[in-house]
Amino acid sequence: MNIEKVDVRDIAKQFGTPVYVYSLRALREAIAEIMPLSPVVRFSMKSCSNAKILKEMLNFGIKIDAVSISEIQRAFKAGYPPKDICLTSDVFFNAEDAEFCLKNQIFCSCGSLGMLEEYGETFQRLGFGSDGVSIRINPGKGSGHNNRTNVGGPASSFGIWHEKLDEALAIAREFDLQLTGMHTHIGSGGDMEHLSRITGKLVEFAKQFPELRVVNFGGGLPYEYHSEKPQVDIGHYQPILEERARELEAHFGRPITCEIEPGRRFVAGCGYLIGEVRSLNHTLDEKKKRLDYVLTNVGFCHLLRPMAYGAYHPIWFVGDELGEETDLIVAGPVCESGDLLTQKNDEPVARKLPLPQRGDLMVIGGTGAYGYVMSSNYNSQPLIPEVMVDGDQVVLIRRRQILDDVIREEV
């Protein structure tokens, strides 16, 4: 199996396993697909924040959506100017964060009345910085693979509830702010009908704000993780956004800047996680049916999505003597019953896969988004390396930690 022109066995031999691998060609194809959709495109960098990825986005004129001051600082290090960065959050993580944004001219999208109030208080105390600010609206409905990825609706804390917009206007007046931006993001994996409906609602909300300059329609572009199924054609989103822009311009009598901020659709498909089969095991259920497990060295400390969301990722085994296809449950090495790469609704789910042997490689697809960035040092496991493939070239873009790195800050 190759990633671009490089055999995965050569990558494993050079960098060890587990290792995250990104295809530069696939990343650029995703960029080319997304860029025409909207006049302004931002990358939701929380999905994959390696400097190499950020610099590639910068080279194509893609701006940044950050969710923390640390992400803003990482974007600075990658070469982004403040004018191309927006902070989207529901709170300032720390008391000094609002001051940082004002001093550095970072445009803020406030997802709660309290955050908007804190921005206004800091603006008045400092006496400088931008009086223009955005608010994130919870439109009352959301989208997502499950409730953990649905960031709209009454079960989500994200955004100012759509019936409280008059309070946002009152806070803005109190602190001499201008509500120049409006934003909503309702979750991942919305279809075109849902995206059309939500963007339409945001336009109606936007008409209540006379000082409006920017409308951010969020992300949520669908990505199909099942490799045997076709990707959704997101080109159908472009005419929807163009219609929304015409509506806004007709209402305000001037152009309104329209933005989107995908994360997953940019990077999910360019990422792979290479691991190794370490052992085979089996159990018998209450009906004496045999359950076969493939035990690997990829745990939820490396890829959290299956355990956190029951997320599906395609899996391939690479070996010289793979056996017949059989029902296999693929698991990790962490001593937790939830450390399963093939699961749904917190239960193991077998897949038809060729039976591997100890020492064979495992390749997990669709790991570019929310893969490395959600990994951890659980079980005192060092964070694993990231590499970039460009044609027949492989470049290390993050080295593997050693134990000294893990315990360096302990005192």
Describe the protein's architecture and organization:
- The strands form 4 sheets. Strands 3, 13, 14, 15, 16, 19, 20, 21 and 22 form a 9-stranded mixed sheet that branches. Strands 4-5-6-7-8-10-11-12 form an 8-stranded parallel barrel, surrounded by 5 helices.
- The protein is built from 12 helices and 22 strands.
- It has 2 domains: 182 residues, Alanine racemase (TIM Barrel), CATH 3.20.20; 139 residues, Lyase, Ornithine Decarboxylase, Chain A, domain 1, CATH 2.40.37.
- It is an alpha/beta fold and 411 residues long.
- Strand 1 and strand 2 form a beta hairpin.
How would you concisely characterize the structure shown here?
This protein is an alpha/beta fold and 411 residues long.
Q: In which range does the helix fraction lie?
A: 25-40%
Q: The CATH topology of the largest domain, please?
A: TIM Barrel
CATH superfamily membership of the largest domain: Alanine racemase
The average pLDDT score comes to: 94
Q: Would you tell me the structural class of the helices and strands?
A: alpha/beta
Q: What is the number of beta strands?
A: 22
Distance between the termini: 45 Å
Bin the strand percentage. 25-35%
Number of helices: 12
Under CATH at level 1, the class of the largest domain stands as: Alpha Beta
Radius of gyration: 23 Å
Main sheet?
Answer: 9 strands, mixed
Net shape: elongated
**Please, how many domains?**
2
Q: Specify the CATH architecture of the largest domain.
A: Alpha-Beta Barrel
Ranges where pLDDT stays below 50 over 5 or more residues in a row are 142-153
